[in-house]
Structures are given as C-alpha cells and as structure tokens.
Amino acid sequence: MVGGTAENFFHPIWYIPSQVSTKDWIIMVFIIIAGTLLPYALYVMSLSQLKPTTASLLSTIEPMVATLLSVTLLHVHLRMFQVLGILFIISTIFLISLPLERIFKKRLSDPKIN
Length: 114
Hints:
Number of helices: 5
Strand content: under 5%
Number of strands: 0
C-alpha cells in the first residue's frame, strides 16, 4: 500500500496511456484474477481445513518457492541478500515448526532447571 501510494505521485492511477491495447488489458485482467484473486481465495478457503501451523508454514514457504522458480525458470542469478533472505525464511520455518508449547511446559515443570 505504501509503495502504491508513493508510485501514484509519479504515475497517477487515473492516467491511462493511449497506447494500451486490448491484449494489454486482457493480460492485466488475467494477472489480477489468476495471479492475485484466485490464489488468495484458495488460501482463505484452505484455512478452514488446515491447522494454523500448517497454514503458517505454507505462507512462509511461498516466497522461497517463488524465488526458486524464478532461478530455475527465468534464470535469475541470486545475490548475497537474496541468499540471506532464503536463509532467514528457512530459519523462520524451523522456528515455526518447533513444538515451543511442549518445550516451555517441560522447562517450567522441571525443578532442576529452575
């Protein structure tokens, strides 16, 4: 939202270039529906059938899958910051998958630790 608001100062949303073709409009509608609306609707519908931890893991993995697909399909070369981001995502997945509730209960109930 912040990026869209800032971009609006340079390219206002009410200004439509005259050279936009019908093909451009079809591609834009396809991207909006198939790339944004449909995946979000499927994700929201899946929340009723998945456990919250599973949904968190899936939404955490999504940026990494997008990066890997862009590397393999589009031949994008990763730089150091992107590799660092992948490592952060993997560490987040690891932390989410830890049974913290069980670990804290065990630590709180063990008299040797306190």
